[in-house]
Amino acid sequence: MREVPSPRSEGMDTPPPNRENFSDMAEPWNELNAFALNRLNASAYADCSHRFRLLSYEQCKELALRLTVERHAGDTPGDFQGRLRYLCVACAHCGFVLGSVGMRPAEVLDVSDWACQACAHDICLAASVDRWDEGFFDEGTVVSRCEKCEALAPVVDTD
């Protein structure tokens, strides 16, 4: 596997990855897509469609994000209940990746900022893959790639 330097690594003057210089980042996104498809066991669902989406703030096209996971009552492993928010590292815009934007739930169980398990860095590149069966959502996952050490990890799984 080819080594892809992180744009925020010490000593590098390259800008953070965004959709305009995405062609330089093709291999990390292929890794993220393969990791997400593996989490969904996609090969066992060949008759379903799997939709890959890069997570970014569309206005400035930033791909490097800080993620916050807000878990609500009813959340279980494999069936996320809550909100997944992002903070754009380029312009500090906050937005939602998934979850309800409207009313606050009666009970918030936990709010935590994403951090890499391997190095505790808090900026990642992220993507989601959803499985669709005959036009209906079946399940999905959001996965991350640490911008510092390049470790891949799940963020949340939905059902």
Question: Characteristics of this structure?
Answer:
159 residues; mainly beta; disordered N terminus; single chain; eight-stranded antiparallel sheet
Q: What can you see in these coordinates?
A:
The chain is mainly beta and 159 residues long. The protein has one domain. It contains 1 helix and 8 strands, in the order H-E-E-E-E-E-E-E-E. The protein has one helix at residues 26-39, and strands at residues 49-54, 64-72, 82-88, 94-98, 108-113, 124-133, 136-146, 152-158. Strands 1, 2, 3, 4, 5, 6, 7 and 8 form an 8-stranded antiparallel sheet that branches. Strand 6 (124-133) and strand 7 form a beta hairpin. The longest helix has 14 residues, at 26-39. The protein starts with 25 loop residues before the first helix and ends with a strand. The model is unreliable at 1-16 (pLDDT under 50).
- Structural class determined from secondary elements: mainly beta
- Count of strand segments: 8
The profile of the biggest β sheet is: 8 strands, antiparallel
Poorly predicted regions are 1-16
Query: Distance between termini?
Result: 32 Å
Taking all residues together, what is the mean pLDDT? 80
- Name the beta content range: 35-45%
Order of helices and strands: HEEEEEEEE
What is the gyration radius calculated from CA atoms?
16 Å
Enumerate how many helices there are, as a single number: 1
Question: How many domain units?
Answer: 1
Which word captures the global form? globular
Helicity range of the residues?
Answer: under 10%
